[in-house]
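Request: Could I get any protein with tokenized structure?
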Amino acid sequence: MPELQRVASHLIPSRQGRSGDDPIFALNDEARTRQARGEDVLNATLGALLDDEGRLAVLPTAARAVSEVAAPDWAAYAPIAGPPAFLDAVIADLFATDPTLAAQSVAVATPGGSGALRHAIATFLEPGQALLTTDFFWGPYKTLADENERTLRTFRTFASAEALDVDALDEALGAVLAAQGRALLILNDPCHNPSGYSMSPEDWAGVCAVVGRHAREAPVTVVLDNAYAAFAAPGAMDTARAALAELAETALVLVAWSASKTFTHYGLRVGSLVAVLPDADERRQVGNALAYACRGTWSNCNRGGMTAVTRLLADPVLRPQVDAERAELVRLLNGRVTAFNTAARAAGLKYPRYAGGFFTTVFAEDAKAAAARMRADGVYVVPIPGALRIGICALPTSGIERTVEAVARAL
């Protein structure tokens, strides 16, 4: 039989050589395999909140709302941009305390916060252009940029453990605008993933001053990724919301909203991209562009999920119930935050200010080597450039001290 001649790859060049595995999920799989063998392993890799017995923490009222969705709502198509009641509920959730921002907003439904970020990157940057974010960032930002034929550029996150490096932002934003004539800046706040840092009023004042100055010269879009806001310290989202109102005077403000963490239903894939535009005509054009992007990307989102989330956001009985249940999970998480801060300070670890949220990071010069040493100790964390990301959300309170000790030994 004649030997067949190999033809060129069917993959286009930009899609060749890609890894099919997400490194965080790969580490999680390794940790779970060892646990299944009976090994005493602590797994602080994934961003899902577990209770102290290691079970996924699920809000009972949210689960009930999902189970009560009627079959036709699961089976029928949703409107392309999302059901109006859902979009109104999301905008109200974000801006109920600021009627001006609410009135200036337009929203579309997305499959989780990732879908919202996808729309922001693909709609407000040209192919080949770079988005801008902090140098500690959620890894899929780069994946989203790459998949949509954009790139990623970063600026130094911290001037100190207590302050955002606003000067670095200023320099990087100016360079991006000089190179490409527009900029899209992603800020993950409050409870930044991966550092756990929440921006202070002083941080936000600096960001507003920098962005306002540059936005008077060229188009600047600011994306607030607030996936973890429901678990932030009191007042953190109020600080961010006040800054958004100021930013909207000169820049385009977008919010990537997600129900995943807020309602402990990560697999439901319910999210939204909300745009704030004072000009009514531009608001209409942006709304049309985002709806068109929905049709051309995923067509429409999970109707049953959006029906349930709408009830959780707007129903006068369900909303206070689910808020009270979430408050218990916040107390659980905050107990771990306190335990981590106490142990980490005693061990002399260097890390950003951490007052709430699913993650924190410890600065590490060789994070990969440190994480490997920790795995030998049976403690799994995620190495990122310059730090170890620790999923406090997934650790039992009793495992915090052991984790800190493993970090200290590894460094």
User: Anything to note?
Assistant: The radius of gyration is 22 Å.
